[in-house]
Design brief:
alpha+beta, four-stranded mixed beta sheet, 2 helices, globular, mitochondrion, Ribosomal_mL43/mS25/NADH_DH
Length: 87
Amino acid sequence: MSFSKALKELRVHFCQTSPASNGIRQFVASNYTAVKAANPNLPILIREAKGAEAKIFARFEHGQEKKIILDGLSAKEIEQKLATLVK
């Protein structure tokens, strides 16, 4: 999954134990290595915090940010949402 050069940073937030964050934990465990290999210069920040809502922030050129909430979604649904977010 290669991203646009306009994408400057990806931040992933989730809870380590919450059932609502299962999908994002599974997505990170399964896809982080491949995503980082396809985008070696892109900072990908993983933030785990108790009770945190599962979400991804994408920061683009000129400081523009977009966010998606991912609570309760499966890893496959998260992959689809992420692809839409970074277009």
